[in-house]
Recover the amino acids of this structure.
DNA sequence: TGTAACTGTGGACCATACTCCACAGTCAAG
DNA sequence: CTTGACTGTGGAGTATGGTCCACAGTTACA
């Protein structure tokens, strides 16, 4: 699949796709066509990579972090132990984000309920949710 | 509390605090002191606000979005219905982030388990986790 | 009353993540 | 073999989220 089709299916612009490629987030193949500046050929795994990028980014990871993340797996020249180490650290960070997210969600739900039904009750206070870790 | 103490307890720099204040994310009071450029006085609610900013930002919200979010509550001159509407929309977005986060976490856990114990089993594929919504 | 430690302001500067553009080469259909 | 739609490259520009700095006014304490 050429860049335009890839951009269409992923919802990215062609410029963004090229940008991600320059940063090493995507690794299209070249298939000879295109002469001196060979055309990039994107595969299904690149679509999945784009999805991982989208989600990771929406969770506040920088492109650099995402690149580091995906680079590790791409070239498997690390020991299994080291990969487990890296991924475990990433997991911890994801889990702490999940916790914070749950705090926010509980707070929002309580606040909406308060607005809807019993505004004379005490207003939910973010601090009370935050303190529960 | 003056800006330096506030910066210390929130872990922000003074410049960042001022930046947030300019963007309307924080609303310190002025207490007369400081002459022509009165000193900003921060209260406990500003510490909580800083925490909300930190979390929201780590979840991928822009400062603009956060400002819109907090501005709505600050000046309560919206109808209850409108506030419920806005907060419900924000809740939906938080919930969808939470779902994506859970997908990532499941995937990472499966991947770590695979690396640790049975690398001869098929490698976990992100797509399988993503497709379950 | 001096002076060190604070304060705000304005403006320059930086990294990140795009976005736009001109240009030139390549392909594929007719 | 022309022509329109594609391609890559390089470079400039933009928005966001800070960060740094010089400057000048203010405060608090000795």
């Amino acid at each position: 699949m050429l860049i335009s089709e890839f951009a269409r299916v992923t919802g990215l612009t062609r410029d963004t796709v090229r940008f991600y490629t320059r940063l090493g987030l995507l690794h299209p193949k070249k298939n000879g066509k295109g002469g001196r500046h060979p055309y990039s050929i994107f595969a299904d795994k690149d679509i999945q990579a784009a999805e991982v990028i989208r989600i990771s980014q929406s969770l506040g990871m920088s492109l650099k972090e995402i690149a580091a993340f995906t680079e590790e797996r791409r070239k498997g020249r690390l020991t299994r132990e080291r990969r487990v180490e890296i991924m475990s650290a990433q997991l911890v960070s994801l889990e702490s984000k999940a916790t914070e997210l749950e705090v926010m969600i509980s707070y929002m739900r309580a606040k909406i309920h308060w607005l809807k039904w019993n505004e004379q009750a005490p207003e939910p206070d973010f601090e009370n949710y935050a303190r529960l870790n």
